[in-house]
Amino acid sequence: MFIQTEATSDPARLTFLPGRAVLPHGTLTINDRAAAARSPLAARLFDVRGVAALALGPDYITITKESGDWQHLKPALLGAMMEHFLSGAPVLSEPAHAAAAPVSEATGKLVEEITQALRHVIDPELGYNIVDLGLIYHVDVDTDGLATVTMTTTSPGCPATGYLSDGARERAASVAGISRAEVKLTYEPRWSTELMSDGAKAHFGIGTGGRR
Amino acid sequence: MLGVTLSRWTMSYFAAALAALLVGQGLMTAGYGFPSAPLRAPETLVVVHVVAIGWLSLLLCGALFQFVPVLIARPLHSNTLPLPALVLLLAGLGALLAGFLQLAGTLDPAPPLLPVAATLLAGGFALALYDLARTLWPARPLPLPARFVAVALFFLATTVTLGTLFSFALTTGLGSQPLLAIAGAGLPLHVVAGLAGWLTLAAIGVSYRLLAMFMLAPELEGTRSRAVFWTGTAGLALAVLGGLAALAFDAALAPALVGGGILGLVALVLYGADIVHLYRARKRRIIELNSQMAVFAFAALAVAAALAVTLIVLGRLSEQVGALVFLVAFGWLTGLGLAKLYKIVAFLTWLECYGPALGRAATPRVQDLVVEARARTWFLLYYLAVASATVALLAAHVLAFRLAAGAMTLATLAIAAELIRARRLADVSAEIRLPAGAQRPHLLMSIPHPSR
Questions:
Q1: Rounded to whole angstroms, how far apart are CA atoms B305 and B264?
Q2: Which of A85, A87, A123, A125 to mutate to test the interface with B (most CBs of B within 10 A)?
């Protein structure tokens, strides 16, 4: 991963271009640590001493410093950004389904079809589909037919992670009406067996105290 | 994307390790080394190092190249270094065995091969250590399981250093008096550093995570688990580092070993409580064969701890230390190793073969790559044979030991055959064996998916 920097007209502000999507829609300005709680990326950047504020855009992060020299701040900020993007954590931590935007009937149908399609992807270890295991946190479709699947895995660092997200992307993109699919991996919240469907719980004998 | 992928050479390590295990067991069956020969005879050293380096260390190194990245959710520093490390380790092991045969008088003593072996082995382990340490370093502060591994790697370095010292003392000589003192009486420290510090500590660390993953049990990082780490580490430091200091300053070794042993025992009791908790708190009610068979390995560790205490109380440790080491190596470490290998080989094979087809075609489950009912018989035979062999050693019954070792060899051969079947997809029904997009795995190495 290579992160470029661009100077701005204000010497206290520096723009970083990580070469990947930062915030898919709009921009977000965060002026203090408390407000950074909603973004794991922002929280990590505020851990660097000398950060006063930051702005997240579609493909950039602009940092405003309160003190210090960029020469000293830059390595720590680059490290924090690398760590964030390599960790797979989302830029915003609130579950996507919390954003209760009105959903059209057509979009709702597409989301349902994608969810059904994702049932063809199994978690290899548990041998059960990723939807009923509760690994799919949210499915969203925008007006351009871009599907965004927010999902997790049963364990962070699992070597199956890449295959699972590729499989989910593939299935979501195979649905008629979807032009492109993206998968966002998140570990917030961490997966637990509580997130399984009743059918999956019964399959694994969870909560019943009994055996399959 | 967390960047954790398939370790390219882990299967090669596993294959070499299994071959060494079978050679070691074959030698014991044939009556080569202890108990047919004395405990410190060169023949016994051949068997011990085939098992300790060839089997256990290669198994653990191969497993760590795959699972250290999982423990810290970061990629392995280099997926290439494990290959030259393996070549050096195998060459070093060959030279080491030849060096022991020189001591036994089986081979011509010139040129002395032990220093060559020590250099090759140190080089191989150094490469493995460098790769794992470079992987762990940026992940600080480490999660608890990875801390066990980090300390285990330190004791691997200690074990190799002591071994190197012995090899030079036995051949070219040593110029330093403290080093001579360590080489002369440091064998117990080499054994403790290797069996407990390197192999057992790493197995404990990895077991915390693997058991939680495979049984859907909560991941333990609480006070008791941390106490296992600190008491275990302190016990090993006292026994090994304290022991080294005692030898270097011409003091008695026993206080360091006894003090370290007591702390080690406390760590094992706490670890046992953690394991019982993991099994009880598991969400997955029906556990797979690997988790079932690991129970026998944990039981072997508990029995070994109890046996050690009993032998010390009876004042018979030195005469029965062979039986104790055998139980630790074959009941605990090999038992756990084979049980987890049974899962890991199928899991990694699944990822390599069917991972690329996920979402594109119907794929079998990991469980469809194995036939647990068939393998269960061989695992039970293995543990029964280990128990019998331990009793035979305690009773000093050589023939009974050789018969039991033969049964162990047979069971291991059968388990190895099951692993090869899993790798070959032999037990997957033909209709779903190779769907579009799947790639047939190589037997001895893994090809990570190109997009990974």
A1: 9
A2: A125
